[in-house]
Design a protein that fits this description.
The complex is a heterodimer of chains A (about 240) and B (about 110). Chain A contains 8 helices and 8 strands, in the order βαβαβαβαββααβαβα. With about 240 residues, chain A is an alpha/beta fold. Classes of the chains: A alpha/beta (about 240), B alpha+beta (about 110).
């Protein structure tokens, strides 16, 4: 009998920690975008890149089972993008993302968007080393999705309710949807957005910048602590 | 169907142990799976049978210990067991709860020769 007491996904978690250290050290904000297929992730990304242009450098990792269509759409904006085809795989893992980071070599202080495979189940279990998961739900889906797929909404820091320009044509109860998301995750932030009309885009950009500030402040306080240690060491020499 | 990747990860861990602990066959394997681990137990069993073929874990008995979910209530500061992320507090009835445990996906131990 051998006692093991190891996390089954220890290997993935190890790669994820490696990715996280690399990204944080270069103050790259990595956001893992998760949703069902067809929620408008790629359109949102294209519009986000336009908004950030000239202000914050961006790189994109695209995960899909097949095709390079999404990476092609992103590259058309002039941003570096790398497509990972997972084949039969239903999610990205930290090892794939680590290789993608090697190839993309994102700039320091940039934002790295990781567009996961469209799936609200499997990507919840795989840490990629991201700073935050962002769940995107379009209002053409059901308002009970956070209750149907609670693991993903519990893991997300932000929920974007996309395609709000379509609300007048739908029975979607946006308040109920937000309440459902808060039911599974009391801390989740919510932004109502339409990538088509631009509604909510400023709030989304502000949220991204606030996350960057959090990362930078952590780096600054680490650097200050290190500096204090070095000064103390010098005074003892 | 990420249970297949979970099984692949499981087999990699077992094979690493087979080398370091010097054994050739796993007779029985015990896993601890929390109710919020996002794993379908039947899919995991199916994946285990498929992925272990030709490995030292082929034919091993798979014991799965299901662990309960844990939650904490914002309303009355009480911890309780639950199997749902949207349950109400059994003490005060509040719906404002936070899940605090139950996402385990762990290999506990194994019998080997």
């Amino acid at each position: 009998m051998i006692e093991i007491e190891t996390n089954i996904l220890a290997k993935n978690d190890g790669y994820a920690q490696e990715n996280r250290h690399r990204l944080e050290a270069a103050s790259i904000l990595a956001l893992n975008l998760v949703s069902s297929p067809g929620s408008g992730k790629t359109t949102l990304l294209v519009e986000t890149i336009r908004k950030l242009e000239g202000r914050i450098p961006v790189a994109v990792i695209e995960g899909d089972q097949q095709t390079t269509n999404d990476a092609d759409r992103i590259r058309a904006t002039g941003v570096r993008a790398l497509q990972i085809n997972t084949g039969k795989g239903c999610h990205l893992d930290a090892h794939m993302v680590g290789h993608a980071i090697d190839h993309l070599a994102p700039d320091e202080q940039s934002v790295l968007f990781i567009e996961n495979v469209g799936n609200l189940v499997c990507p919840a279990a795989f840490d990629l080393g991201e700073a935050a998961k962002v769940a995107i739900l379009s209002v053409t889906e059901g308002e009970d999705k956070p209750l149907k797929y609670p693991d993903m909404f519990a893991a997300a820091k932000l929920m974007i309710l996309n395609k709000t320009d379509l609300l007048p044509h739908l029975d979607f109860d946006i308040e109920a949807c937000e309440a459902n998301a808060r039911r599974v995750n009391p801390d989740i932030a919510v932004i109502r957005l339409s990538a088509r009309t631009g509604e909510g885009m400023d709030a989304w950009i502000d949220w991204i910048r606030a996350q960057q500030v959090v990362g930078l402040e952590r780096l600054i306080s680490d650097a200050e602590a290190r500096l204090a240690d070095l000064r103390a060491a010098r005074s003892h020499v | 169907m990420h249970e297949m990747s979970i099984c692949e990860s499981l087999v990699q861990t077992i094979e690493a142990h087979a080398r370091s602990d010097d054994f050739t066959k796993v007779l029985r394997l015990r896993l601890e799976i929390g109710c919020f681990g996002g794993v379908e137990i039947e899919a995991l069993r199916f994946g285990f049978d498929v992925v272990t073929r030709g490995t030292c874990a082929e034919g091993a008995e798979l014991d799965i210990l299901s662990l309960p979910g844990k939650a904490w209530c914002f309303g009355c500061d009480t911890g309780f067991d639950t199997d749902s992320r949207v349950s109400d507090c059994p003490v005060c009835g509040s719906g404002r709860i936070r899940v605090t445990g139950g996402d385990e996906l762990r290999i506990k131990d194994m019998e080997v020769i």
